[in-house]
Amino acid sequence: MTVKAYVGGAAMIEFRKPGDSDPYDVMGGNAVRAALADAGIGLDKVQQAYASYIYGDSACGQKALYEVGLPGIPIFNVNNNCSSGSSAIFLARQAVESGMADCVLAFGFEQMQPGALKAHWDDRVSPGRLVLNALFKSRPNTPPPGGAAMLFGSAGFEYLETYGATPDLFAKVAVKSRRHAAANPYALFTKPLTVDDVMASPVVYGDSLHRLMCCPPTCGAAAVIIVSEKFAKANGINRLVEIAGQGMATDTATLYDNARNVVGQDYGRRAANIAYEAAGIGPEDADLVELHDCFTPNEVITYEALGLCGEGEATRFVDDGDNTYGGKIVVNPSGGLMSKGHPIGATGVAQCVEIVWHLRGEAGQRQVEGARIGLQHNIGVPGAAVVTIYKAA
Fold first, then answer.
1. Which residues lie below 8 Å from residue 176, measured CB to CB, with a gap of 6+?
2. pLDDT tens track, the chain, 393 positions
3. What one-character DSSP code corresponds to residue 216?
4. C-alpha–C-alpha distance, residues 148 and 346, integer Å
5. Quick one: CA torsion of 280, 281, 282, 284, rounded to 10 degrees?
C-alpha cells in the first residue's frame, strides 16, 4: 500500500528581470530556507533533494543547497525543459509514496538571460529538431524564424483556423492574467492591460502573435517540502496539502498530427486524465488551476486539454468569464507566466506554491474563496506534461 504524499512547506521568492536578481545559488538557497521555515523543520530532516534548472553547469543543485548547509543526502539535478520544476515534484512524490523517504525537498531556480530563449550548444543535434520537423510536417508552409514563438504561434493560428476564432481571444486571456496579477506581490508585471493594448503591441510572429501574448524571461526560485503523514505528525507540521493525483506524459506518434500536439496538447490531455483518475475527480471539481501560459495561445489550447471546456469552446469560455473569479474555475490567479514571469527551473515549483497558498487560505487579496482542490499544468517542449491535483487536507 502506498504512502500518501503531502506538501508540508512551500515558499518562493519574488521573480525579477534578468540582470536584476541574485545569483542562482543565492536565490535557490533563499527559497529552500523559506520552505523549511514554513514547514518548521531544519535541513537535517530532509532525506533527499531534487533540484530543477536548465541553464547552468552540472551540479548547480548542490551549489544552491550548499548555501543552506551540507546535508550529505542524495541530491538529484533535474532538467526536463520547461516542465523541470513539476518533474522534480513528481520524483519527490514518488520517493515519499514508495516509502523510500519521509521528507523530500523539491526546489527550482533559474538565472536567465534577456531576450528570447536560445540554444547554447551549436556543435551537436538539437533536441528541438524533432518538434520542428513535426511542425513542418503538419504545417509545411510555416514561415520562419524559428524558436518558441513559431511553435506556439503556429499552434495558436491553427486553433483560430480550426474553430473560426479571432486573435482577440488571445488578447482577452492576457488582459485576464494581468488583472489577476494586480493582486499578487510576487508578480513582475501588474499594470492593467486592455485588449487594444495587447493588439497594438508589436507582432513577434506571423500576423497575430503579439508581444503582450508572450511571457517574459525572468529569474527566480521556489521550493516545497514533500512529506508523509507520519513525518508530519512527528514533526508538528499541520498545514498540509495532499498531492491527490499526478500524471506525466511525453510524446507519441500524435506529435505529427497537428501543431497543437507539437506544443503538448495531446500529452497534456493524457497526463490530466491520469491525474484525474488517480485523484478520483474530474475537471469540474477543481476550484483553481495554475497552467502553463508561456504564450496566451497555449492557455487557450490547455483549457481544452484539461477538459475545462469542450473542443472549440474556448471563445465562449473566455467571453462568459468562466476562467476567472465568479466563473467555473479561476485560471492562473497568480497572473501566470504571462505576468509573474517564467524562470524555467522555478516555474513548476512556483505553480505548486501558489496552489498551496490558496488551499491553505493564505493567498491574500487574490484568494480563491473556499478553494479545496487545485490543478497544476506544466509542460516542456520537447519534454513532458506534468499535471498534478492538490487537495486541502
1. 318, 323, 324, 331
2. 589 999 999 999 999 999 999 999 999 999 999 999 999 999 999 999 999 999 999 999 999 999 999 999 999 999 999 999 999 999 999 999 999 999 999 999 999 988 777 777 888 999 999 999 999 999 999 988 778 999 999 999 999 999 999 999 999 999 999 999 999 999 999 999 999 999 999 999 998 999 999 999 999 999 999 999 999 999 999 999 999 999 999 999 999 999 999 999 999 999 999 999 999 999 999 999 999 999 999 999 999 999 999 999 999 999 999 999 999 999 999 999 999 999 999 999 999 999 999 999 999 999 999 999 999 999 999 989 999 999 998
3. P
4. 19
5. 170
Place of cell 516509502: 99
What distance in Å separates the CA atoms of residue 9 and residue 227, rounded to the nearest whole number? 9
Q: What is the per-residue DSSP string for 10-63?
A: EEE---B-TTSS--HHHHHHHHHHHHHHHHT--GGG--EEEEE-SSS-TTHHHH
The whole-angstrom separation of Cα 359 and Cα 240 is: 9
Q: Which residues are catalytic?
A: 82, 342
91 contact partners, CB below 8 Å, separation of at least 6: 50, 76, 78, 106
**Sheet with 241-249, side-by-side order of all strands:** 75-78, 48-52, 103-110, 220-228, 5-12, 241-249, 385-392, 373-379, 288-290, 330-331
Query: Which residue, among 89, 49, 7, 41, has the nearest Cα to 234 in the 3D structure?
Result: 41
- Other Cβ atoms within 10 Å of 294 Cβ, number: 25
d(CA 270, CA 387): 9
Distant-in-sequence, close-in-space partners of 26: CB < 8 Å, separation ≥ 6? 67
- Set of cell numbers at residue 284: 469540474
